[in-house]
Amino acid sequence: MEKHDVIIIGGGPAGATLAHFLGNYNIETLVIERGEHFRDKTCAGGLPKGIFDILPEGVKSNFPYTSYNLFNVFYKRKLVASAKFDEPFAYGVMRSQFDESLRRGINIHYSERFISFEESKNNIIVKTDKNIYETKLLVGADGIGSIVSVLSGLNKKSKIVIAEEKEIPKIDYGESLNVFLGDFSLGYGWRFDKNNVTSVGAGSLKKYYKRGLSNLVDKTVVPIKVYPISLWDKDLNIFKGRVVLVGEAGSIVDPFNAAGIYHSIYSSKLLAESIKENFDKGSFSFANYVEKLNATIFEEFKYALILSSVFYPMLSLLKSIIFKPHILEFVVNSQNETGYLSYKSVFERFSKSKHIEVKIAMLILKLLKII
């Protein structure tokens, strides 16, 4: 029987980078990926300023990307605020190229489907449609439809966004990242160039989603790809025994803007640290993984949840306050310390505002016991 220290189900950003991070600790891994090389992945492909700071060393410059220096916000399809920056504040990638670059140099089996696992005191037996393996740890990095999550009873994925994207012939929006608000129920739209196409998309919470949202951003007729996203909703049930979840398999997705790539990679980095510590101690509790998440990603996500509760439902009330160039600059520059938007900093500034509209919003949050 083939044996591995760690078996990772899913070869997306979470699974692939986890294999790299663990390899740096001399922990041997196998990634099982049901897709093929350069598989298509429906995704906007947006990355924050700090993405290069968390990528494994071997993959930091292996993929093409588009840089964005201009941030435009539209309300009901009218440009209402714009801010330009000297350096890129975000990047865009084609997922097939990006994911493939992350997989270079790792031990990965393509076109192999995970079926089940059996856990014992000392190991886990993993069954696929092609083989049977033995491993010390099993990691679910298999996204929103995680079979590992379902079979282990972990992470129920209670807060779902439905998003759609279409790639239209490049219109040359240059270095601009364009966000559209006001036409989407508890959601937003986007438009930006990446590689040789323009990405157009939109999304909203599942109960409010109606197909064709992206046409409110651009009416160009091309195939529309629809995909669900599982947002973080305070569910810490992401490990049990020798089984643990990472990335979107554990709903480690920004609850404000539904971005998942950065936190998939960051959570893999934290999980690799946890696994290394566990191997050194000879124990297999992942409480240290949750502690690391609580101190970093989830600490910011708590404020992201609060802000999402006020921003989208009260947009018509707050639009005259927040659609200002200096506000855009503050939000974007909040990335400077960590490389990702600091929701805590944004909330602290928001909560201190003397504008009556903000005071009303804060009162509503308190009445609803959100804060």
Automatic annotation (TrEMBL):
It comes from the Bacteria. SUPFAM superfamilies: FAD/NAD(P)-binding domain. Signal peptide: none annotated. Gene3D superfamilies: FAD/NAD(P)-binding domain. Residues 4-155 form the FAD-binding domain. InterPro entries: FAD-bd, FAD/NAD-bd_sf, Geranylgeranyl_reductase. One of its GO terms (molecular function) is FAD binding. It holds the Pfam family FAD_binding_3. This is FAD-binding domain-containing protein. The lineage of its organism: Bacteria, Pseudomonadati, Caldisericota/Cryosericota group, Caldisericota, Caldisericia.
